[in-house]
Amino acid sequence: MSICNDCYLEYERWLKENKAVDFEDMINESARLLMEVKEMKQKLDFKYIIVDEYQDISKQRFDLTKALSEVTDAKIMAVGDDWSIYAFSGSDITLFTEFAEKMGYAKVLKIVKTYRNSQEVIDIAGSFIQKNAKQISKRLISPKRIEDPVIIYTYDSRAKTSGGDRKSGANYALASAVQTALEHIMESRKAEQRKPGTILLLGRFGFDGDQLERSGLFEYINRGNKVKSVRYPGLDITFMTAHSSKGLGYDDVIVINGRNETYGFPSKIEDDPVLAFVIKGDNSFDYAEERRLFYVAMTRTKNRVYFIAPESNPSEFLLEIKKEYKNVKLAGNWNENEIVRIDRKPCPLCGYPLQLKYKRAYGLRLYICTNEPEICGFMTNDYRAGKLSVGKCDKCTDGYLIVKPGGYEGFFLGCTNYKKNGTGCDKVVSMKSFYAQMGYSLEEIRGMGTVSSARDQKQEKMVAAENTGGKMEVTAVKADSSDYVEIKRAEIEAVMYGDKDLNDVVLFTLKALQNVSTVRYYGIVMLVDILRGAKTERILKNRLDRIPEYGVLRGLPRDSVQAVVEWLITQRMILRTKEQYPVLHPTYAGLHYSEVMTSGKLRALKRYIGDGDMKM
Question: Which domains, from first to last, does the chain contain?
Answer without folding.
Answer: 16-103 (3.40.50.300), 125-268+277-331 (3.40.50.300), 383-468 (no CATH), 496-609 (1.10.10.10)
